[in-house]
Amino acid sequence: NLSHELRTPLNAIIGFAEMLNIKKDHVFAPRDREYAGHIRRSGEHLLSLINDVLDLAKIDASGLELNETVVSPASVIADCLDFVTPQAQQGALFIGTELPASLPTLFVDARRLRQVLLNLLSNAVKFTPRGGHVKVSAALDSGGRFTLRVADSGIGMSAEEIEIVQQPFRRVENDFTRTHAGTGLGLPLALALARAHGGAIVIE
After folding, report:
1. What would the pLDDT profile of 135-161 be if each residue is shown by its tens digit?
2. Residue 62: what pLDDT?
3. Residues 84 and 125 sit within 8 Å (Cβ to Cβ)
4. Which is nearest to 109 in space by CA: 145, 63, 141, 143?
5. CB contact at 8 A, 88 and 122
């Protein structure tokens, strides 16, 4: 019920802002078009935060229903890299992959796997200073388990900080993180989604 009550009006706000943005120039002043764009982007940002909160609540309350299908991990990785590459380019970051010639298909919820990888990649890009690098690699480990790794040359974390960031709404406070907005939900949600699939996330 809460999901419906929050998402429905926000989707209406985003939809009407998009309609305003496609009005003809002679009807719509440039400044008004700019305002409509701000409304749409703010609405989309708020909707993504609400989705994260509701996903965490759903996992805590009754477990998350997964829509599992056969998925190519290489295609999921490619989609996620396409999404974060513009942000990486703005920060003059090198972003690349290290993948074997062939990877097994996975039986997972593709949307949720994308959500996990995007959260990890977004954090890597956000907290890596200009000129650094981010790399995604995948392989089977010695036990035949699929492993997906996101590595970066960013600011890193101490053992104590790793404990903090795994808790919802908690953030590590330092000079670098204060300049970047965030709710402290991305990593806890990625951890919960990995567990829902019978997997795990290890942070080094």
Report:
1. 999 998 888 899 999 999 998 888 888
2. 62
3. yes
4. 63
5. no
Distance CA 90, CA 76 (A): 23
The C-alpha atoms of residue 35 and residue 52 are separated, in whole angstroms, by 26
Contacts of 186 (CB under 8 A, 6+ apart): 52, 119, 122, 123
Say how many CA atoms lie within 13 Å of 101 toward its Cβ. Answer: 0
Taking only the tens place, the pLDDT of each residue in 73-112 is 999 999 999 988 988 998 899 999 999 888 899 999 998 9
Please write the tens of the pLDDT for every residue from 38-61: 888 888 878 877 877 777 777 766
Q: How far is CA 58 from CA 61, 186, 192, in A?
A: 5, 15, 11
How many angstroms separate the CA atoms of 204 and 202, rounded? 7
Check: CB of residue 22 under 8 Å from CB of residue 33.
no
- Listed in sequence order, the residues at least 6 apart from 202 whose beta carbon sits closer than 8 Å to its beta carbon are none
DSSP string, 143-185: TS-EEEEEEE-S----HHHHHHHTSTT----STTGGGS---S-
Angle at 50 between CA 49 and CA 55, to 5 degrees: 100
Q: What DSSP element (H or E) covers 49? A: helix 30-62
Q: Are 200 and 192 in contact (CB under 8 A)?
A: no
